[in-house]
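Worked example 3 (structure in, sequence out).
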């Protein structure tokens, strides 16, 4: 694909109402004149006189790489099943590791925007709730005599957190990160609609949900599904995220832990979509977002717009 072809893809997905015809991001005027500088596409608004590009005011604002590189990054990133190694992405794009890391986190931010304010379930629907712990690995000592019981709280790093996922059967997946499963109860109450039948395991943290939802509980020591109670959908999400942690990311705890969880949810929900539809979806989300809340000011070494 040429640079002009990549430009047309971004324009079509940013301005779908005008079939890719530029619209001024400052005043909304549709009368814009081409004032291209070299190979970089730019337009000038007739109403306010502002110059803008196809990425102005979006997640990729103040970009330095060609649009074709950004489109390639999105295609490669979406094509993976469990996640993408940043070392591999940097090799694919021919950029530094840090550049690939920041670009991938911007794509995760775009994926997360599709879950903003999301509520799942409703009358006659079933949602599954479960939690799994990630991060906080403590390396065992070399000598067996010096090793400690890493299961005890006093011997842990304190960085281990739980990802709590709510998954509607035949619907969307909504994850979030908490210090413990008990801390997730109010979030679950707010994000699962009233009238939903909730399936969960025997963790005592979910006992507080009985007051609002019709609950079915399952003990996984007895089976995967007992008396129609089942959390296999949530377990499928955790399987994907765990394989991504072990095979690609290796370390997902810390400030951006929630972004990895949201990426895994997006991949789980879109696993049956065609690759082209996945790419169009991510580009469209990125074009509707403003500059990155995680990396704009930090990465550009300037004040965020």
């Amino acid at each position: 694909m040429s640079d002009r072809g990549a430009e047309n893809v971004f324009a079509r997905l940013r301005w779908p109402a005008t079939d890719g015809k530029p619209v001024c991001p400052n005043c909304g005027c549709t009368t814009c004149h081409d004032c291209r500088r070299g190979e970089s596409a730019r337009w000038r608004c007739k109403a306010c006189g502002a110059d803008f590009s196809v990425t102005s005011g979006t997640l990729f604002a103040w970009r330095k790489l060609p649009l074709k590189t950004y489109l390639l990054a999105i295609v490669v990133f979406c094509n993976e099943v469990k996640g993408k190694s940043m070392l591999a992405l940097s090799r694919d794009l021919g950029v530094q590791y840090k550049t690939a890391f920041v670009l991938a986190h911007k794509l995760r931010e775009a994926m997360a925007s599709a879950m903003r304010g999301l509520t799942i379930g409703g009358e006659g629907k079933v949602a599954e709730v479960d939690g799994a712990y990630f991060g906080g690995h403590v390396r065992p000592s070399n000598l067996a005599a010096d090793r400690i019981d890493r299961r005890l709280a006093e011997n842990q790093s304190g960085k281990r957190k739980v990802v709590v996922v709510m998954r509607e059967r035949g619907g969307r997946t909504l994850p979030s990160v908490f210090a413990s499963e008990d801390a997730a109860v109010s979030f679950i109450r707010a994000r699962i609609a009233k009238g939903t039948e909730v399936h969960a395991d025997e963790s005592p943290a979910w006992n507080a949900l009985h007051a609002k939802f019709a609950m079915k509980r399952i003990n996984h020591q007895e089976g995967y599904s007992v008396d129609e109670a089942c959390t296999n959908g949530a377990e499928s999400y955790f399987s994907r995220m765990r394989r991504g942690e072990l095979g690609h990311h290796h370390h997902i705890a810390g400030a951006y832990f929630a972004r990895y969880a949201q990426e895994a949810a997006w991949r789980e929900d879109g696993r049956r979509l065609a690759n082209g539809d996945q790419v169009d979806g991510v580009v469209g989300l990125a074009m509707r977002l403003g500059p990155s809340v995680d990396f704009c000011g930090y990465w550009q070494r300037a004040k965020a717009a």
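Notes: The first helix runs from residue 3 to 14. The chain has nine helices and ten strands.
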